[in-house]
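Inputs:
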Amino acid sequence: MSVFAYPSPLTDLLAISLVGAAATFFAGKWARWVALTTAAVSLGIVIWVMVNFQLGTAFDYQFVQVVPWLTLSGGSGGIGVNYTVGIDGISLPFLLLSPILTIVSVVYHWNETKNPAGFFGLVGLTNAGLFGVFVSLDILLFFAFWEIVLIPMFFLIGHWGGPRRHYASIKFFVYTHVASVVTLVALFAMVFLGGWSSMDFGGSISTAQVAALDTKNIMVVPQVLLFGAMFFGFGVKLPMVPFHTWLPDAHVEAPTGGSVLLAGMLLKMGAYGLIRIAFPLLPYGHVNAEPVVLGIAFLSIIWGAFLSLSQRDLKRMVAYSSINHMGIVLLAIALWTQLSVTAAVLLMFAHGLVSGLLFLLSGSVHHTYGTRDIPSIGGMNSRTPALTTMLMIGSLASLGLPALVSFPAEFSAFLATWEALRWWVFLPLLGLVVTAGFYLWMLQRMAFGPPRGIPDKATDLPFNEMISMGLLVALIVLYGILPYLIVQFIPHAAIFATQCFHGGSTVCTSTP
Amino acid sequence: MVDYFWYAFLVPLSTAIGFVVLGLGGTFFKKGGGFIAVIAEGAALVFGVFFAYQESLSSTLYHDTSFVWFALPDGTSFVMGTLVSPLGALMLLVVNIVGFLVVLYSMEYMAHEEGLPRYFAEMMLFLTAMNGLVLADNYLEFILMWELVGLCSYLLIGFFWKKPEAASAAKKAFLVTRVGDVLLFVGVFIFFTSLGGIVNPSITTSPYPGQVCSSAGINWACAGFTFAPPNADSNVVFLSANSVASVTAQDPNLMTLAGLLILGGAAGKSAQFPLHTWLPDAMEGPTTVSALIHAATMVAAGVFLLAITSIYIGFTPTAALVVLAIGGFTSLFAGTMGLVARDIKRVIAYSTMSQLGYMVMAVGAASLVAIGPGAAMFHLFTHAFFKALLFLSAGSIIHALGTQDLFAMGGLLRKMPVTGYTMLIGALALSGIPPFSGFFSKDGLLSLTWTAAQHYPGALVFFLMALVGVLLTALYIFRLWFLAFSGTEARESSAHPAHEPSWVMRAPLVTLAGLTLVAGFLPLLSGFSHLLPGVQWGAFGYASSGSGFTFSQTDLFLGLASLGLALTGLLTAYALWGNGRVFRLADESPLKGLHTVLVRKYYFDEAYDGLAHGGVLGIARAFDWFDRYVIDGTVHAFEDLFRIASERGRRIQTGLVSSYVSWVVFGLIVLVFFFLYALPYLTSAWGGG
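Outputs:
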């Protein structure tokens, strides 16, 4: 247990990104520079945190800071609500991903003309909210940041979006907000029924106390009900089939940068909630609900893959492929082993980079060719070779090609599936074949063949788009060749999450 | 002694540097930077030959250097590294000799094509991945490289991307092999979970052949033929045969399935029935690509996979028999389609499928009789040279004439004698005529299969299929040769006059022809035979064994039978197509129906297209409909529900104070009830805290 004597760097991170986002709104024509600087500084802090992160020494949260905030009446001595922040290996990859995707979005929209200050400010605010979600170790604080993230995304879609932006933004907001409310009720019920003395779920208490948080003192039936509510709440965000229909609409209408953050980060919040709260804190819940969770995971994988195959709109296809990939994440979480949770986190990191690239590409295809309709464009390679090359790299990364970041993640996830479920692994593998199918079919139609449907003014990628995509490609290759760079952080936290809440395995109290 | 083998990574590194230089800056060099590719691959060739030579001299068989790629605290670790093994060393020779000659040949052959830097960069990437594949020290690394060579195949088949056929063929190749890859994944998962925990660290070398390790009955390998599952930290720990045997004893069906799943992967890559449909279409790529990737190296990777896995397959005769059956069947099946193809490259592609079938059959036979897969690997070795030779000769014709239609050619021997005679050497080797290399390797694997069929009579059917395949092989390849070279005049005048290519293209042809002449005798060198565990070199019943030769009457009969069949095929081809004759089936011929079936490739393309469009895409469309109208429709129904409810609910706001007061009182009663009765009940009943 290491509470920082001085304010945690995570607090600095939150403060700087919030102040930076606020400043961006008023920075006028300098907005993009302020937004870029803020994101770059926050990335710097995250890298500092990564360098100083203690690898494999203890299961504790690190860089913890606790500030008492308020006390709710209830229980025996009231329930403490604290400002508690801290991270472990599960939150760290997201902390790294968020500023990277923010930088990518800002650079991509460098020449945004429609109220740029507002746009960059909202992107920065999303980033700040995401930081909050991934560093909070207090139920109420976590929920507050969870809600904060929704609001800038609502405006990004509703104001900067495509023709049906109002419909899509309202659908996005109402759908995820209903889910949030259900989550909130379940979270509070868990705290009250479990007799917690504080909303803290990891920061201010020792490992032994975390084990005591084990909510086994909630009976099985209510635990299953609570788990069901949280699974619904977090699962809508994931999104899982059949609660996914907000996603394609939101993506199709969202501005490119908004889509990047939506797919890259917002979807991960749901899975993070499952890994961090629903699964470890409600062990009876997830054990009893496992068949349902697995069923929904398989359904999402297959559904996402086949739906992608039938799409005509490039961006909608990528959106459905996200459902497929997040289905694999949900499957890996549901297996709840050390390997599978590590794979889930790694896969989310990979998907953040890869889907980010693919959404940037959808945006570029749209404004270069005036449409994203796959059958009406052909032979892109003859006019825009750079864009086409990027589209190939993005597609290949998404279909799980080795030496690119998704491969180690998917391979471990499927291996974990085989270990736990044996022949069921063929279902997600079928998804893998279909995924290869729809990407290659898209490339065959759009990228190759004789030129078709190419407007005269179509020009290749501008410099800023090249930079933002190049950054993602570099990271996709780097982490694909050396997955160790990110995997090294994850497994200890995965052990902690999967083993320490089931009545305190001895592994949790000793230093590994 | 210096541990040379630590530096084995230099082989893939040479071409990797070539790839980076050409990939990033290829456009700055003249002629697409072909000379850089030649230098890089030349370096890889030197290193490859060096390590193969060291391996042939070494007294230990496996030389492993590895590091942890990523690992989990529970001991699951994923390893990367290089493993110089006998089979891998043989493959290093194949990949780099053919690779170097093809890259050299490309300098002229591809000189007029658009996108040359891309071509050479992709070739470099392919050679890097292929060298990585043969040096892989565990199945995960193998899969990684396996997928990368598949990617290069995809990219290079689609090299002429403006042609819709090329784009389609590339996609088809990737998808069909992907189906096999998925099966391979699961096979490897089985190895990982079932064998991963059972290793015997005390056995670090494999004392085969001939050394008896135990009473397990497997006397050719006490340790894993190849690499262990990725469970070791830094040193590869070879599986003891006894451990595999004990796992097999516990769950024989699982090991059988593992063998079949691995076969699935190999069938995808090596174009074996029923995953064969992509290879003929892959001929849309440049001829050099066909020679290197789709004849000599990548398609042989499936056979290599089976060979290094053959110890595991050998523990379950069922799996080994299926391997033998698939190979034997494909050797005949592909040969029949080769008989009717008009496209010169497609004929050779069917021939590749058929020859790979022989190799797969031989691995199955070797597994059945528990000896090393040397016979299959020997054929792989000889085949790589004579098949690359056939492709490059065909490339020389295409380069000169600009057509691939056999029936448009004719009388080329006088105009292109070097091409003609080198191709003749390739055709004789392919048919199995002595003293060319194919004769020795094909004889070896047929005699091995015959031995296996003695123990497992079911294999006899497939042995006979393979024997008929020998006849067809000679028939289709000499049909090709006579149609192209015999006679006096081309049947269709071409835009370009036929001419010999320059030395840049002729040198690889002559070199490959030379290799085709000598390759058959190489197992007589004791160092080289070291790279072919289990091979029995011989001819006409005589087989080398240690110090001298042994004689077997059965082998003599087998050898004479296959030679007789090959000569029959050759003479039939001469009778039908020799001297400028063009034999075509008459329209009323009773064989016309069969001919149509063969031309349509047994309707596999139609069936798979139907499955893809009607099946998969149909399901996708149905799902899409359901998604739009049922799932999202339900969401909209909720929207309507709330809108209607709110319109109704608005009526409560009557503006009458008495009405509001009654609602407030009602609400208060509910709250009081909840706090006084329901909440204490819930906390006591549901929570103990």
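Remarks. The two ends of chain A are 14 Å apart (CA to CA). The CA atoms of residues 7 and 294 of chain A lie 41 Å apart.
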